[in-house]
Amino acid sequence: MSGDLVREVIDAARFAYGLETDYWQHPDAYRTRDQVYRHYRQGFSPDLAAAMTDHTLSGDADLATWVPKQVFVAELRANEALVWFPTPPTFGKGGLWDLDDYMVLRLHRDGGRWVVYWGRDQSAPPAQ
């Protein structure tokens, strides 16, 4: 695996998971649903960007994402990657979302950038 490609994927996962916090720092900058969707579309697939838009505009104000401190690459191909990172206690068992110990994301290249197309929590990281 190329070090540059690994860094791109790690940065893309961290960028996507930071979009929600970016939104909440300046919610007035997004006047329409489409603007919120386009914001999330920078780091997520169309389906996940729509889900993030719905969650953000639902009014419950509970964060669904966090910027991981470390991201580990389990698989890497030219246009697809599988990454994982630990779930922080605030989001983990007994926390805000009661998630398992690890988040696993599938990223794809989309329009020249890496975006998250799939994600799930699980009790163990994927085999590397």
Structure description:
- The protein is α+β, with helices and mostly antiparallel strands.
- Helices cover 34% and strands 24% of the residues.
- It has three helices and four strands; from the N terminus they run H-H-H-E-E-E-E.
- It has helices spanning 3-25, 33-41, 46-57, and strands at 72-76, 80-86, 102-110, 113-122.
- The protein has a four-stranded antiparallel sheet.
- The longest helix has 23 residues, at 3-25.
What is the secondary structure topology, with strand pairs?
Elements: H1 3-25, H2 33-41, H3 46-57, E1 72-76, E2 80-86, E3 102-110, E4 113-122
Antiparallel strand pairs: 1-2, 2-3, 3-4
List keywords for this structure.
single chain, 128 residues, alpha+beta, 4-stranded antiparallel β-sheet, globular
Task: Summarize the entry for a quick read.
This protein is α+β, with helices and mostly antiparallel strands and 128 residues long. Helices cover 34% and strands 24% of the residues.
